[in-house]
Amino acid sequence: MPLKYPELENRRIIIGVTGSIASYKILELVRGIVRAKGQVKVVMTRNATKFITPYAFSTLTGNPVYVDLFPPDFSWSPLHISLSEWGEVMLVAPATANILGKAANGIADDLLSTLILSFPNPIIFAPAMNENMWKNPAVEENICILRERGFEVIPPEKGELATGKVGEGRLPSPETLLFWLRKCFYPQNLKGLKILITAGPTREYIDDIRFISNPSSGKMGYFLAEEAVLRGAEVILISGESTQPVPPGVEKIVIEKGEELEKEVKKFFPSCDVLIMNAAVTDFRPCKKMEGKIKREGKLSLELIPVPDILAGLGKEKKGKLIVGFSLETEEVEKRALEKFKKKKVDIMVGCLQKEGYSGFKVENMEGIIIYSTRQKERFSLTKRELAELIMERIAERRFEK
Ligand SMILES: Cc1cc2nc3c(=O)[nH]c(=O)nc-3n(C[C@H](O)[C@H](O)[C@H](O)COP(=O)(O)O)c2cc1C
Description:
Rossmann fold; 2 domains; 12 helices; 20 strands; about 30% helix; about 25% strand; binds flavin mononucleotide
């Protein structure tokens, strides 16, 4: 089976664990890295070993766990130097208020804090603490210092904390931490771009409780959003009903009807650099929505009218922006995608085949053709994740062509 996160394969990752109750989540994170065939070495503070034993980490990683700056079996090479030479990236998670303070002030009084000072590659901090500690001005100032110096500090989440209270300061999930590690191994070729992505289905109501829609899961759009943030873009995702997890760092705006989608696209379009229209818009709506619930009494005819074309209404605002359209077709994919490419004045049109159980809705695969403004065409038969990767790569190439 292909690896879920191939970008982590054979990567050398150091995880610094400090004395927080949230350290139990790191066992799951380490498993995730090992599953992705990454190599992990864990460095623990002495206080961290009071929460989790080093044996748990060494068993999961297949590597020794490092705690002491002066271990009993000290050899000629100091540990903080050999670990600095080994690691490609370091994630300190959970990061206590204490380690943040030490890192911000250049204190090196144990193995982990000394390693932070000597480590030449990217370091990410994932703070976790009680809300009062998180909002303490000393901690806030230390976070500012670390960010100013170019360290990534993952914002903690709001939710139930270890004490049972609800507040800000919770360590993000292992999957989210893994996401930030994956980002380190992606080309940051979309950094500085603001990308607006629409995803999922729209609904057009017949009466107060029934609607016309389509089976879009939103998967393609969410993969596009994930791929864009991994490459450093700022992403706004306008989404219809979808159970897909929202990628970390993505701002999600929920819509239901086509007119809501249109309103949100118009609102964010002027400030974005790239628009990707991936939402499965329900192209027709009833001429008149009935009030209440239509009774089941004999035959019923619905008169439908086309919904407005959102892209057509954006023409004047386009300026230097890049617009990517999607078109899902049951036949003549290339011909129809080309027609839409011309009519909608997009820069890239992704024509996809809808074939039950093979390509399109409800399956992982997409087959089709991409048409570029250079008149080039590119056929594809890929998973949705791979297609998202290809599209973002093409957007990055066009960015540097300008
Ligand atoms: C049960 C318990 C839970 C703790 N959880 C946290 C925590 O989540 N975040 C934090 O910053 N400190 C927490 N502390 C306090 C730290 O363990 C303490 O500041 C310690 O000096 C940190 O040492 P270290 O950064 O070297 O691991 C906790 C302490 C105890 C006793």
